[in-house]
Each structure stands twice: as structure tokens, then as C-alpha cells.
Amino acid sequence: MSDRAVIIIGFAVLLAAVLGALMVARLRRASVASLADTVAYAMSYRAVRIVAVLGWAWLGWHFLAR
Asked: Which keywords does UniProt give here (predicted)?
């Protein structure tokens, strides 16, 4: 298996985990926070906002600058 295939499978697994967590959050409202609530809570910290901006800048540089 090539490195590219492993990376694609890894991202597919991450996407499936996120979608599964979203489904659980929708079905069991009281026990698991939704993605929107989690992001809103995380963005209340300045360090998380800085890391998010740097992450978006890195992604933009690598995917849009070529």
C-alpha cells in the first residue's frame, strides 16, 4: 500500500469518526456536546483561536499558493 493510500484512508477514518460523533450528539442531546458547542467553547480561548488561524494559513499556503 502506498503512502498516499494510507493518508487517504486515515482522512476517511477521521471523517467517519467526526460524522459518527455528530450523529451521537444529535441522537443523545444530553450526554454528548454538539460540534458547534464544542467549537464555540474551544474558541473562547485565545491560544486556540491563534492555532486555528495559523492552521488555516498553513492550509491556504499549501493548497492555494501553488
From this structure: Membrane, Transmembrane, Transmembrane helix
